[in-house]
Specification:
By secondary structure, the protein is mainly α. The chain is 62% helix and 0% strand. It is elongated. It starts with 15 loop residues before the first helix and ends in a 7-residue tail after the last helix.
Length: 93
């Protein structure tokens, strides 16, 4: 009988080109999602510290929170997605 050839990836996960392309796509998504979460955190911090409210914005210092949260999200979301794509596939028992 003829044996089936092994897959070229050898169970190593997605190819690097695909992984990097998806990681680059995730960067702006991570920035905006992290920024929105950080803006919510700024509202919570303003409530807890009894800061004076500003008209029309969630908190007076929402921009600092948004930029820092966006930078964190821009790094962590693509990293987690690329790590999950490159993890070796589990073999079926």
């Amino acid at each position: 009988m003829q044996e089936m050839p092994e897959t070229p990836s050898g169970g190593q996960g997605a190819p690097w080109a695909r992984t990097l392309a998806i990681g680059c796509f995730m960067m702006p998504l991570g920035f905006f999602s992290g920024g929105m979460i950080a803006a919510f955190v700024s509202k919570f911090v303003a409530y807890v510290t009894h800061a004076k409210p500003c008209d029309g914005v969630p908190a007076c210092n929402w921009l600092e929170f948004t930029v820092v949260g966006g930078a964190i999200g821009m790094i962590t979301l693509p990293t987690l997605v690329m790590w999950a794509l490159r993890s070796p596939k589990r073999s079926e028992p």
